[in-house]
Amino acid sequence: MPISSNAFVRSTALLLLVGFVALLAIVGTTIWLVEQNQNYFNITVEARSARTAAINLRNAMQDAETGQRGYMLTGEQSYLEPYNEAVPKIPQLLEELKIVLAPYPDSVASVREVEGAIVGKLEEMSRTIELVRNGQSAEALATLKTDQGKALMDKARALFDGIIDAADRRISDGNNNQRGATNALRWVTIISAVVIIAVVGGSAWTVLSYTRELASARHEVETANSSLEERVRERTSDLGRANEEIQRFAYIVTHDLRAPLVNIMGFTSELETSVGLLSDYMAKAPEASDPAFEEARLAATEDLPEAITFIRAATRKMDGLINAILKISREGRRQLKPETINLPEFIEANADAVHHQVADTDGTVRFDVQLPKIVSDKLSLEQVLGNLLDNAIKYRHPDRPIEIALRARQALGNRVEITVEDNGRGIADSDHERVFELFRRSGAQSQPGEGIGLAHVRTLVRSLGGDITLRSKLGEGTTFTITLPRDLRSHLGRQTA
C-alpha cells in the first residue's frame, strides 16, 4: 500500500515519539537502578567497615587478655608484650567502632554495653597485672578466679559477635540487592536495546518505503515530463505555425484590403472634385421657383460635401487601422537580433528622446538602473519603451507636472525587471487587461489613437520571451512592469529546440 506524505509524517512522528518516550524511560530507569546500586554498595561498605572495626577491637581485647594470663602464669615480662601492644590501640579502635556504627541508631545500646565491658575488663586486667608485679600473685589469682573478668570478656565477645552478625547480614542483603539491581539493569538494557532496535527498524522501513515510492514517483514524473516536453514542443510548433499563418493571413488580408481602400480614396477624391464643381455651379445658378431645383441645390452645396467629409474620415480611420495591423504583422515576422545593450545608457537615451515634451510641463524623469548590461533585441526594446513613455506623456494628469521613474533590477530565474512609473491620470481597475487588447482604449478619448499601442507593446515583449503587467489606480498614476530574459539567446535557443 503506498505511503502518503501525511501518513509518512504521522508514522515518523509516532516512531520518534515512541523512541523519545523509550529513551526517557531507559535513562530514568538506568539512573534509578544505578542510584540504588550505589546505595546498596554504600551499605555494604559501611557494614564491612563496622565488621572490620568490631573484629579489630575484639582481637585487641583478646591479645590483651592473652598477655595478662601468660604474665600471671609465668611472671615473665615478655608475656606482657601482647598486652602492652593492644591496650594503647583499644581506645582508638573503640572510637572507630562508634563512628562506623553512628548511622545505625539501633546499635547505640550495644556500643555502650561494649564500652562498659571493655572498660571493666581493662580495669580487671590492669589490677591483676599490678598485683603480680608487686609479688601478690595469690591475690591476683584470687581476683581472676572470681570470674568477673571472664564474664566481662564473654559479654564483650557476645556483643562483638552480635555486631559482626548484623554486619554480615547487611553485607549479605547488600550483595543480594546489588545482584538484583544489576540483573534489573541488565534486563532494562536488553529491553531498551530491543525497543530501540524496533524503533530504528520501523523508522528505517518507513523511510526506505517512502524513498522507494518517491523514486518510483520521480521516475513516473520524469517519464511524464519527457512525454509532456515532447507534447509541449509539438504544441509549440503547432502554435508557431498557427501564429505564422495568422500573421500571414493578417498581412494578406490587410494588403488586399488596401487595394479597394485606395480605389475608394481615389474615387472619393474625384467625387469631391466633381461635387465641388457642381456645388459652385449650383451656388451661382439663378434662383428658381421649382422646389426640385432648390432640393438639388441643397444636396449639391451641403449634403454631398458633408457625406464626402464623412467618407474621408472613415477611409482615413480604416487606412490607419490597416497600417496598424500591417505594422504588428511585420513586427511578428521580423527576425530578432540579440545584441549586448548597455542598459543605463539605453534607458537614458530613450528618456532623452522625450525630454523636451517632459520639460514643457515642468516634469522630471528619474532613473534607477541596477543592471549594467543585457542581451536583447534593441529595436524591439526601443519600441516598447518609446510607446510606454509616449503614453505617460500623452495621458498625463492635467493638474500636475509629469513625473516618470524608470527602474531596472535583477529578477528571479536569470531575468530582468524594467518598470516605467508615471503620475498620470491612471487606468480604472476594470480596464487593466482591456488596454492590452487590439483597438481597445481606456478612459476619456481626449487623445488621438487607434488603440494598438499597448497591444503592440505586449506582442513585442512576448516575442522577446517576457511579459508585461501593470498596476494602476485611477487618478494617481500607472506602473508598467516588463519582465525579460537577461539573455535573449537562451529564449531563442529553447524556441529552436
Describe the structure.
The chain has 497 residues and is α+β, with helices and mostly antiparallel strands. It folds into 3 domains: 5-212, Four Helix Bundle (Hemerythrin (Met), subunit A) (Up-down Bundle), CATH 1.20.120; 244-331; 335-496, Heat Shock Protein 90 (2-Layer Sandwich), CATH 3.30.565.10. Helix content is 72%, strand content 10%. It has 12 helices and 7 strands. It has helices at 5-74, 81-86, 89-101, 108-133, 137-145, 148-284, 291-333, 343-353, 355-359, 378-394, 453-463, 488-496; strands at 338-342, 364-369, 373-377, 403-411, 415-422, 467-473, 477-485. The strands form 2 sheets. The protein has a 5-stranded mixed beta sheet with strand order 2-4-5-7-6. α1 (5-74) packs parallel to α4 (108-133) and α4 packs antiparallel against α5 (137-145). It starts with a helix and ends with a helix. The model has no long low-confidence stretch (mean pLDDT 78).
Summarize the structure.
The protein has helices at residues 5-74, 81-86, 89-101, 108-133, 137-145, 148-284, 291-333, 343-353, 355-359, 378-394, 453-463, 488-496; strands spanning 338-342, 364-369, 373-377, 403-411, 415-422, 467-473, 477-485. The protein has 497 residues and is α+β, with helices and mostly antiparallel strands.
Distance from first to last alpha carbon: 40 Å
Major sheet details:
5 strands, mixed
* CATH architectural type of the largest domain: Up-down Bundle
Average predicted local confidence, pLDDT: 78
How many independent structural domains?
A: 3
CATH top-level class of the largest domain: Mainly Alpha
Strands ordered across the widest β-sheet: 2-4-5-7-6
Order of helices and strands: HHHHHHHEHHEEHEEHEEH
**What is the CATH homologous superfamily assignment of the largest domain?**
Aspartate receptor, ligand-binding domain
Number of strands: 7
Coarse structural class? alpha+beta
